[in-house]
Amino acid sequence: MKALLFTCVLVPWLMAASAWRFDQGSHLIPGSVPGKQLNGYFSDHLKLRRARRALPPADEPDDSPIPVEGDATDLPTCLLCVCLTGSVYCEEVSPDMTMVPTLPKETAYLYARFNKIKKISTKDFSDIVTLKRIDLTGNLISEIEDGAFSKLTLLEELSLADNRLVKLPMLPAKLTSFNANHNLLKTKGIKANAFKKLTKLVNLFLADNELEAIPHIPESVRILHLQNNNITEVNKDTFCRSNDTYYLRLNLSEVRMDGNPVVLSKYPDIFTCMKILPVGKYR
């Protein structure tokens, strides 16, 4: 009789204690939640961390604490960025990204826009010879070492728009598109042969800078943007050839020179080889 009474009292007490321990969701106690439910909790927790970091589903975040402040170089690239096969997306990274991140081998496309990168050095891309496109738009880049892109023999597209560049480095020969809009470039900051060897260049964007004259434009260029600079004059060899009256420049299909001080109507003979007239001031 006493044993039966003890059992009747003990069993309900154990059930109540177990229920109380199970209800404490914010204070999980080892052994208090069934293994299946515990695994579910950690699964949801990892999903939440993954969403906050905007990682692709294939990436597994670690359990180390995420620093609130600091420099992005303290963390592995693929925890800060989205790394897909051959592509790395590092846009508006937090904490601040102040230098080019270490890239996975065989990266072909890098998008590191709207960060606070200040300088490009020769070592940043020295081991990533597979790069075909680099987009560094919207950073704080004021210096690029002259050999920074020298080993990128496959590079076709390069954007340095919206930075603080006052001069350009040597550029890879296979570029088809180069964008340096919205910088602080002056004519003296562009070497005479900066574009001369770019025989495959199709798009050249140098708008919203401080250029006083037009640099050498390769024959291959189709779209040329030079608007909103300080260009005051053009010469007979800027687009055509003064010693060849039969020369035709048929590739150029768009030339913008609006927003410059130069009055293009003063130079009627310099566009005779072109099939279009530049957009700009004529009066």
Automatic annotation (TrEMBL):
Q: Which GO terms describe its cellular component?
A: extracellular matrix; extracellular space
* Locations listed in the record: Secreted, Extracellular space, Extracellular matrix
Q: Which SMART domains does the record associate with it? A: LRR_TYP
GO biological process: one example = bone development
A GO molecular function annotation here is: growth factor activity
Q: Where is the signal peptide?
A: 1-19
Classification via InterPro entries: Leu-rich_rpt, Leu-rich_rpt_typical-subtyp, LRR_dom_sf, Mimecan/Epiphycan/Opticin
Family, as annotated: Belongs to the small leucine-rich proteoglycan (SLRP) family. SLRP class III subfamily.
Q: Which PANTHER family match?
A: EPIPHYCAN-RELATED, MIMECAN
- Function (record text): Induces bone formation in conjunction with TGF-beta-1 or TGF-beta-2.
Identify this protein by name: Mimecan
Query: Which organism is this entry from?
Result: Mastacembelus armatus (zig-zag eel)
